[in-house]
């Protein structure tokens, strides 16, 4: 199911690259609607007149394997096509070129040099060269007939090729990643210079399309919305309120794994400020009992997901004609929990509202935002006039503090962590750092260490702090605090919270790590 069926679209064919979603995101950033499909499902879209361009993604396979079968009819549709990395090699092979394993693999930065002008590379090069991000072990070593060489690198003689008449291009590097200088220009040139598509993907358009889709899907039935008070579920609540009004009931479950004072804040925001029908359920004891002695992170997520659903189903029985459960699931949630397109990308972890859900549910899922990235959700929230104190909050995981306490979750650990997280976030706000950071949090590691406080020996937990910068949550880097801030927050946590005697800072990017610990 796509977001909309009536917009001019750039179709992204997924061959299993972890960067496929970044391609879609770059297209949307440029103001154009894009949709990702699995390469095996391409035949279903060949007759769609709204497709104005096709991008073939990268992928882990070899083009010479018999596993890859793509309908060659797409190359006769007179639709512009761009192949990226693996897609570049597919185009080359189909049109009579040759691909082989490279003598030297290229992973990371590489310099490419301009060989000729093309609509794809207009304003891309600086002094006839550019730095790009390569990630491949195979190369095109024979160019197909009627294709021109547009650029070369030291190890990839045919780094950019193109059939300018058919408007079919291939690039060996990844223009969608931020490491490629002017990579967005390649994407925009393909959209506007080659596909001649017009901008159609704006928050206002999204709002109208989503409201219409919700009305069509829900009809006269009623919907319960799992509300956490975070950006995602808040935007879902507002868009549902616009679409179905009184047929919406929000259920806020306090699972005891929320941040300090969060339950009180959510009730104030949604009952008083937004005037949305809200049912409050205090289930702290239930969740803690279910998590007793559970250490495996996947089990935690599934336990939490299952219990949420049971509570939603229980309270929905009190409301007549409830058919749907609405959630704030986003595109990155689907990507990490499973391959949304069914491609060969690996599952990273189960999100409690995706992979953590029970197989059998009495309510149908309604996930209006499941094909949106985080920044798109925030823009939609602005369009819906969501209060900025909610809109600009850092992301908070559905399983809450349970996945910020590796190992067994106890009431004592939760109390300690709530205080540490509160001091960290409060200090970020006081130092005008909160809005410079995508997400920040404290975690409590399952390790105790020896310390000395007031000439006495202590044996207490390690508090880990994490703060990252990101655009969409798909990739991230750690925020570089100055030494003074680090000293202040370390002292504040250790001096004010019994149970912590050591503070460490996580300086790992995503990838290789994920943003959350579990």
How would you portray this structure in words?
This protein is an alpha/beta fold and 518 residues long. The chain has three domains: 9-194, Class I glutamine amidotransferase (GATase) domain (Rossmann fold); 203-391, HUPs (Rossmann fold, 3-Layer(aba) Sandwich), CATH 3.40.50.620; 410-505, GMP Synthetase, Chain A, domain 3 (2-Layer Sandwich), CATH 3.30.300.10. It contains 13 helices and 18 strands. The chain has helices at residues 20-29, 86-94, 183-194, 203-218, 231-244, 262-273, 284-290, 297-316, 331-337, 374-383, 388-391, 411-430, 483-496, and strands at residues 9-14, 34-38, 51-56, 81-84, 98-114, 129-142, 148-153, 160-163, 168-171, 222-227, 248-254, 278-282, 322-326, 364-366, 439-453, 456-469, 477-478, 500-505. A nine-stranded mixed β-sheet has the order 2-1-3-4-9-8-7-5-6, sandwiched between helices. Helix 6 links the parallel strand 11 (248-254) and strand 12. Helix 4 (203-218) packs across helix 5 (231-244) and helix 4 (203-218) crosses helix 10. It is globular. The chain starts with 8 loop residues before the first strand and ends in a 13-residue tail after the last strand. 44% of the residues are buried. The model is unreliable at 344-357 (pLDDT under 50).
